[in-house]
Amino acid sequence: VQLQASGGGLVQPGGSLRLSCAASGSTASIYGMGWFRQAPGKEREFVAGASRNGRNTFYADSVKGRFTISRDNAKNTVTLQMNSLKPEDTAVYYCAASGVAVSAQASLYNYWGQGTLVTVSS
After folding, report:
1. In sequence order, what are the residues at sequence separation of 6 or more whose Cβ sits closer than 8 angstroms to the Cβ of residue 70?
2. CA end-to-end span of the chain, whole Å?
3. Confidence (pLDDT) at 2
4. Confidence (pLDDT) at 101
5. 62-97 in b/e burial notation, b at 16+ Cβ within 10 A?
6. How far apart are CA 109 and CA 103, in angstroms?
7. Angstrom distance (rounded) from CA 17 to CA 52
8. Mean pLDDT of all residues in the chain?
9. Overall average pLDDT of the 14-39 stretch
10. How many angstroms separate the CA atoms of 5 and 80, rounded?
11. SS3 79
């Protein structure tokens, strides 16, 4: 499975961005998909995850109510709509895929995209 993330960029505080991640290869083996992020000098952290059918979604407390994860299995994509962005949301965002679960634990994800930079600054 290969993951290609896109959609990062520079946005002002309060603005919005939409990240997309396209999966290719053995996509039938994917169960959960998620987004993680890593800010400079910090550890990678869970942002959001979605189950295979997209009905079960999970979010980090820091993004609840602002970010929305969704899946389109017909297109093998997962998107992260980010609204009301804050400077502390600045990070490299990674999409990830798991063959076994949807989890906040990075170790359960088998496949990772290359990351896309989101910068929230005025």
Report:
1. 50, 54, 78, 79, 81
2. 37
3. 95
4. 82
5. ebeeebbbebeeeebbbbbbbeebeeebbbbbbbbb
6. 8
7. 23
8. 94
9. 94
10. 10
11. strand
